[in-house]
Amino acid sequence: MDSLLPSPSDLPPELPRTLRPLSLLGTAAYPPGVYRLVSRARPVPILETITDRGWFAGYINGKRVDDKTTFLSAAGQALAFPDYYGRNWDAFEEMVNDLSWIRAAGYLILYDYVYRLAAAQPDAMQTALAILQSASSRWQHEGIPFYVLLRHTWHWNRHLPKLAAQ
Which residues contact 113 (CB under 8 A, 6 or more apart)? Predict the structure, then answer.
């Protein structure tokens, strides 16, 4: 897997402070998985930094996600799911573990305003999180990095590791 991941030195030296946590992705300390991201950067520079690596980067704007239905729809858009996507948990799990329609060296989902779904439907958030963590493990076994970065969590799921530059 290491050959697919650029080292932090492969990132531009002028990487702004707000994007520096992204340089930790792919290091031994931050293997693929689900992390709370501490960064004030706007979504576009984060996504561009990731796509510059040859990875696919999808964005979920959680301001519009407050239930299972809106999460499944937003996730489908973020990952460009095919039209036949069923918008239920089984279909979401199948799609996130396939991604054959997206050829990339790695995958990253940036999910902002996570607290909205977590507060409104904690069971739905836990189900989504479990599916995403499982998918990350599966992709890692194939040597392909799969990250989910959660922002604006309002202390929801403090047990998740935090991605932040020192």
Answer: 61, 62, 63, 65, 151, 152
8 A C-beta contact, residue 77 and residue 116: no
- Within 8 A by CB and 6+ apart from 119, the residues are 154, 156
pTM over 0.85: yes
Amino acid occupying residue 68: K
Give the C-alpha distances (Å, rounded to integers) separating 100 from 34, 78, 97, 103, 143: 21, 15, 9, 7, 15
What digits encode the pLDDT tens for the residues 111-150? Answer: 999 999 999 999 999 999 999 999 999 999 999 999 999 9
Residue 49, H or E segment: helix 43-51
Specify whether the CB–CB gap between 148 and 34 falls below 8 A: yes
Domains, the chain, in order of start with CATH, read 38-157 (3.30.370.10)
